[in-house]
From TrEMBL:
Pfam families: Ank_2, Ank_4. Keywords: ANK repeat, Repeat. PANTHER family: ANKYRIN REPEAT AND PROTEIN KINASE DOMAIN-CONTAINING PROTEIN, ANKYRIN REPEAT-CONTAINING PROTEIN-RELATED. It comes from Hanusia phi. This is Mono(ADP-ribosyl)transferase. InterPro entries: Ankyrin_rpt, Ankyrin_rpt-contain_sf. PROSITE patterns: ANK_REP_REGION (PS50297), ANK_REPEAT (PS50088), TR_MART (PS51996).
Length: 588
């Protein structure tokens, strides 16, 4: 139906589909249609010219249906004469004679029109036009023949107003919570008729006589309803805050668990006439009492191992810590506890059968996760539960101390040194990397300071000279990743001679800094190092200037030429190439 704007108009939009603007307009149409007065004859008109109507629109299909959907907003008028004016401006004059009703009445825009007494009725997009009678013709006074198509409209009332769109989260949440409350009421009614309740009431004469068990049930449902009412009074803006919404969903999905627990607590963990007293306690307090009881059971030395494990499993379930993951996006219970820094839950999870030595994602050991997030107590608890300080990842075999240094977790570094002694600062991973390499790579200055201090105190200053991956020192790591402060600390311990050390490809710190254009690092090297350092050539005969020219590092080129002069500019690689050759070949 809608032929749409020409291609040039689409180009002018520059990809902007004006989605929000369209939604706002449609929202206005929906609202106005609710207060628009129906035309007296319940008919509106739309005039066309030059329109070739497809056969599928005019003829019934196998289901007896004819017509089509208007993709855009549809403008109509209550005045047949206005429709004829539009229809008779060209060939194939056509008028849609559209029957409307209380639901399908469109929005009157007469109060917005620039034309006096215009009666425009606007319909929302995706309204359906159904041919209800055979087309007829009408001859005008000037002899022109107009085709008239009697139609019925089904206005698209499924469009949402802006308020509906903004309030969608709240609407869905309230529907969810009301459904949960109804489910709780039904579940409690079933439980009240159970054998367990009858057996418990046989030991509670007063509760039976006063019907306190019904008061207990009502206290649960009343609190659940108050919970729902509390959120019903919350603003839409709050629900559109992700943090608030997540918390609300968590509370809602825990509500039934807490509600059923209150009645279950009365059945299993009270004696005598307890309904009246328990009815006065809120759901969360009883929930906390149940978890406290399970904790006592889990750690009671007098309990059998199976009873302790069962108590631990039930406590974990109540806390929402599942033993099994649902899918690959679902973190195991141990990971959830670690992410929240809940060190006290880890022994309980282990007792419940959870593996403390797993990984999530696949390349991150649980201990590595705790260290990287900076949770000292959680780290200590995992170590006490038997998690080793050396572990495998997909990339390499590394240590807890390496992880602490990589992520700059000074408190955990101190904890590990206190547990294992300062000698552990010399540990290497299976790629030969020391903790100093990782601290320099990530620019963790505070932990590098603590690391070098511990190394100095134990006579292990040579740690800064240790070769790691690619036969590089930690000074190479600092230069490659652009950490000038880390480089200064390494030079202070290892001396400026370390700047001239060549890695497995014959490259010095100058090569690494020039390669990546780390100007601050270059300034430190040029200020503290020997002048000849800029002339050192790698295995291919390239100087640091070659590296800077190959990658278009202009500021680095200026600094190095100032230090090395024309001799450096004319230096050739083993292939006879100067830095000018490299710059030209790489388009710099």
């Amino acid at each position: 139906m809608n032929v749409g704007p020409p291609p040039d108009d689409f180009v002018a939009l520059r990809g902007n589909k004006y989605t929000t603007t369209i939604f706002c307009i449609v929202s206005g149409i929906i609202k106005l249609s609710r207060v628009t007065e129906l035309p007296r004859d319940r008919v509106v008109y739309r005039g066309f010219h030059g329109l070739q109507i497809p056969r599928e629109f005019l003829e019934e299909d196998e289901y007896g249906v004819s017509g089509g959907v208007e993709l855009g907003m549809m403008s109509t008028t209550t005045d047949m004469k206005v429709a004829l004016q539009y229809a008779t401006r060209g060939d194939f004059p056509t008028v849609f004679e559209i029957a409307c009703g209380a639901v399908d009445r469109g929005a009157s825009l007469s109060f917005l029109s620039q034309y006096p007494e215009e009666e425009e009725i606007l319909y929302p997009p995706l309204s359906y036009l159904e041919l209800i009678k055979k087309p007829r013709t009408r001859e005008l006074e000037n002899g022109m023949i107009v085709r008239v198509l009697p139609m019925k409209i089904n206005s698209n009332m499924t469009c949402s107003t802006i308020e509906d769109i903004l309030g969608k989260r709240k609407q869905l949440f309230l529907a969810l919570i009301n459904n949960i409350v109804e489910d709780i009421e039904a579940s409690l009614d079933v439980m009240m008729l159970s054998k367990e309740v009858n057996a418990r009431l046989s030991k509670s004469d007063w509760d039976v006589r006063e019907e306190n068990h019904l008061k207990l049930r009502d206290s649960i449902t009343d609190e659940c309803k108050r919970f729902a009412q509390l959120y019903a009074g919350t603003t839409v803006k709050e629900f559109n805050d992700d943090t608030f919404h997540i918390k609300a969903l968590k509370q809602a999905t825990s509500l039934k668990k807490m509600a059923i627990n209150k009645l279950d607590f009365w059945l299993k963990h009270t004696s005598g006439d307890a309904c009246d007293r328990l009815a006065s306690e809120d759901l969360r307090k009883v929930y906390q009492r149940k978890i406290a009881h399970l904790h006592r059971m889990a750690w009671a030395e007098s309990s059998a191992d199976k009873d302790r494990e069962d108590a631990a499993v039930e406590a974990c379930r109540m806390l929402g810590l599942w033993r099994y993951t649902i899918n690959r996006w679902d973190a195991p219970a141990v990971v959830e506890a670690i992410e929240m820094g809940q060190a006290d839950l880890l022994p309980l999870l282990k007792l419940a059968g959870h593996d403390m030595k797993g990984s999530f994602p696949q390349d991150k050991n649980y201990l590595e996760l705790a260290i990287s997030m900076g949770y000292k107590r959680t780290t200590q608890t995992l170590i006490e539960l038997g998690v080793g300080l050396v572990f495998e990842t997909i990339k390499t075999r590394t240590t807890a101390l390496h992880v602490a240094c990589e992520y700059g977790q000074v408190e955990i570094f101190n904890l590990l040194v206190a547990l294992k002694g300062k000698e552990i600062v010399t540990w290497k991973d299976d790629m030969g990397q020391t903790c100093a390499h990782l601290a320099c790579q990530s620019g963790q200055v505070q932990i590098l300071k603590a690391l070098l201090l511990a190394a100095t105190e134990t006579g292990k200053k040579e740690i800064v000279w240790e070769r790691g991956y690619g036969n590089a020192t930690c000074a190479h790591s600092a230069c490659e990743h652009g950490h000038a402060d880390a480089l200064k600390m390494v030079l202070e311990v290892g001396g400026r001679e370390i700047m001239a050390v060549q890695n497995g490809h014959g490259q010095t710190c100058m090569h690494d800094a020039c390669k990546l254009g780390h100007v601050d690092v270059l300034k430190v090297l040029l200020e503290l190092g020997e002048k000849d350092i800029v002339h050192i050539q790698d295995d291919n005969g390239r100087t640091c200037l070659h590296q800077a020219c190959m990658r278009g590092r202009l500021e680095a080129v200026k600094l190095v030429i100032e230090a090395g002069g024309s001799q450096l500019v004319m230096t050739q690689s083993i292939h006879g190439r100067t830095c000018a050759h490299e710059a030209c070949e790489h388009g710099h």
